[in-house]
Amino acid sequence: MSDDEIKQLCLMDIDKILHSYGKTLKDYPPMPLVIEVDSSLLTERIIRKELNFNRDDLKKNASDMLAIATPEQRYAFDKIVTAVNYDEGVFFFVYGHGVLKKTFLWNLMSAEIRSRGNIMLNVASNGIVSLLLLNGKMAHSRFKIPLNIIEDSVCNIKPGSPQAMLLLKDKLIIWDKAPMVTRYCYEALDKCLGDIMRCSPTYSKYLPF
């Protein structure tokens, strides 16, 4: 990535922050304006951010956490990670009270999958909970889900966009506190992922998404 490309990406971030305050770079004449950036550069940046982990540290963390995992956590870990490794394309619903320590399980799987150089996305229905997850985000923010969602709502992610390319490379999505939001959120994401996956050479109509 050239110095000019880095400069443009920085200007984009500054402009985005200013927009949240009702301002733009144009309101500060000494500042240079953003020049349109190639979408492939934005895609590379987003993907690089999700791979920006020390794989050796994650591998050690996963090993240490697995050593103290409960039998229930170990069972869920083995089932889900195996499904990821073999690209089985399945859903898992993990339910349990606080004693199960689901957040521990999510972070264990995150460390294991990312230590192999794979991309996975951690989201939560609650902002506070998302902070407990490794590189976690709010589901609405990550998947561009409308706040005022209805039955026909769709996610604001277009096929071929940098966000779509990230989802194509994603190996696993963990959605914590799933029952806290309406089913329309999941239906919107399902439609979005279906559209995105049709652009993938590995697309199969027999698998989810």
Summarize, please.
By secondary structure, the protein is mainly alpha-helical. It has 9 helices and 3 strands; from the N terminus they run H-H-H-H-H-E-H-E-H-H-E-H.
Spans of at least 5 consecutive residues with low confidence: none
Structural class: mainly alpha
Rg on CA atoms, Å: 19 Å
* Helical content band: 40-55%
Q: List the secondary-structure elements in sequence, H or E.
A: HHHHHEHEHHEH
Strand share of the residues? Answer: 5-15%
- What count of domains describes the coordinates? 2
The largest β sheet comes out as: 3 strands, parallel
What is the typical, i.e. mean, pLDDT? Answer: 87
Distance between the termini: 33 Å
Strand arrangement across the biggest beta sheet: 2-1-3
Overall 3D shape:
globular
Instruction: Please report the number of helical segments.
Output: 9
Enzyme class: isomerase
Protein name: ATP-dependent DNA helicase
Family: Belongs to the helicase family.
GO molecular function: 5'-3' DNA helicase activity; ATP binding; ATP hydrolysis activity
Q: Describe it for me?
A:
This protein has 209 residues and is mainly alpha-helical. It has two domains: 3-37, no CATH class; 53-197, no CATH class. It has nine helices and three strands. It has a three-stranded parallel β-sheet. Strand 1 (119-124), helix 6 (127-130) and strand 2 (137-138) form a beta-alpha-beta unit. The longest helix is centred in the first third of the chain and has 17 residues, at 3-19. The chain is globular. The chain starts with a helix and ends in a 12-residue tail after the last helix. Belongs to the helicase family. It comes from Arachis hypogaea (Peanut). Keywords: ATP-binding, DNA damage, DNA recombination, DNA repair, Helicase, Hydrolase, Nucleotide-binding.
